[in-house]
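Sequence design from tokenized structure. All designs in this work follow the same two-part layout: the structure record, then the generated sequence. An example of the structure record is given first.
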């Protein structure tokens, strides 16, 4: 039985407030010469104090040994089994920039990238070009690329090296492989349809890539595009429909606003920086919402860059600000991540992430530090990420009794 269906049946409209503070990719591995993970090395007196007042444990987002993308990781946190609700990054990126997706649109995430004279990828993020350069490049592609037949092409800037592509037209399917090889020193992959229904989209993508290559050939850094996360858009049941939650998203990066919009949350104007995010949480606290999602991106970004010290710095900044969430006195405060991004690996990983649930009815354990090693000894143990929403609902008094 899918346990999330049971929660849907037990969910009640009345109850307490819930705050999720998600430090994207905060989980890690011990870094050479530093004596621990970023969480272990960081000075986190406030997070550690909260751990001493909470139920702690570890979350495994998809399954043992499975490395989750940000989409599956967040869907699990919100109670959507990522094995059932598989969703490509393209749709999330499009929703995150307020693109008006229509049922049947096919979307993919674009990375502007750098290839050498032999056509091999040397930088999958084009040196993290600035967002204004991205806008200029997207405008050029949008104005000068023409697709044949009845397929419309839309391109929108996301941020830095990220953009989104949307195809619209009858008979489009999205069973296409990524063209991003996920490593350097090799050429981009060719798109291939996995079924007959996706051949029309494959043809459109091949044409787009051929024209993009010519138009970007003179660029120093962003001279190629890589595509990831093809998906055909279809609406999801909302958090309100499933769990009686009225959500508010506070996220700086578009993709996480996209996830939130897909699940029916209201979206706050994007804050600029971590301090502004916590201040936005303070100023938006009201009876209009009972579920608040505050997202921190830089823990993930610095992990992918292999910048251990910068990741430690972000964790310490969150620690200095977490009191703003505590002072709101939510019925449930959750601090966790959507996946691990060890600076040692410069990539997402399969390692479970620490979690703590602070609530009046939470069973306090003996964990005294918020990190990957300490939390393994907590009362929550190691459990699937999709369990988190049920625990949050229960601690907020939002689940009725099961059975007679």
């Amino acid at each position: 039985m899918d346990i999330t269906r049971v929660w849907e049946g037990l969910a009640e409209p009345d109850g307490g407030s819930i705050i999720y503070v998600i430090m994207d990719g905060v989980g890690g591995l011990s870094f050479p010469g530093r004596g621990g993970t970023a969480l272990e090395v960081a000075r986190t007196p406030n997070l550690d104090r909260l751990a001493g007042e909470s139920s702690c444990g570890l979350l495994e987002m998809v399954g043992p040994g499975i490395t989750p993308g940000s989409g599956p990781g967040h869907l699990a946190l919100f109670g959507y089994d990522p094995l059932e609700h598989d969703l490509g990054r393209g749709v999330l990126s499009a929703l995150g920039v307020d693109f008006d997706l229509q049922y049947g649109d096919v979307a993919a995430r674009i990375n502007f990238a750098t290839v050498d004279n032999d056509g091999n990828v040397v930088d999958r993020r084009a040196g993290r070009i600035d967002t204004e350069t991205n806008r200029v490049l997207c405008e050029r592609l949008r104005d000068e690329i023409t697709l044949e037949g009845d397929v419309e092409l839309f391109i929108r800037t996301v941020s830095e090296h990220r953009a989104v592509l949307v195809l619209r037209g009858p008979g489009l399917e999205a069973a296409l492989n990524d063209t991003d090889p996920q490593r350097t020193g090799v050429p981009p992959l060719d798109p291939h349809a996995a079924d007959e229904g996706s051949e029309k989209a494959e043809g459109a993508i091949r044409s787009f890539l051929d024209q993009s290559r010519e138009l970007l050939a003179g660029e120093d850094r962003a001279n190629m595009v890589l595509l990831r996360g093809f998906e055909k858009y279809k609406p999801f049941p909302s958090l309100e429909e499933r769990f009686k939650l009225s959500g508010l998203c506070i996220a700086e990066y578009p993709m996480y606003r996209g996830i939130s919009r897909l699940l029916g949350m209201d979206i706050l104007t994007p804050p600029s920086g971590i301090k502004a995010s916590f201040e936005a949480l303070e100023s938006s606290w009201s009876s209009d919402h009972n579920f608040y999602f505050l997202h921190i991106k830089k823990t993930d970004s610095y992990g992918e860059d292999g910048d251990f010290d910068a990741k430690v710095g972000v964790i310490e900044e969150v620690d200095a600000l977490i009191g703003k969430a505590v002072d709101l006195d939510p019925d449930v405060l959750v601090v966790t991540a959507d996946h691990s991004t060890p600076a040692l690996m410069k990539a997402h990983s399969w390692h479970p992430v620490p979690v703590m649930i602070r609530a009046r009815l939470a069973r306090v354990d003996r964990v005294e530090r918020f990190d990957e090693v300490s939390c393994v000894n907590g009362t929550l143990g190691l459990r699937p990420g999709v369990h988190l929403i049920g625990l949050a609902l229960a601690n907020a008094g939002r689940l009725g009794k099961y059975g007679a």
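Residues 3-86+237-395 form a domain with the Alkaline Phosphatase, subunit A fold (CATH 3.40.720.10). We note this feature because it recurs in several other targets discussed in the main text.
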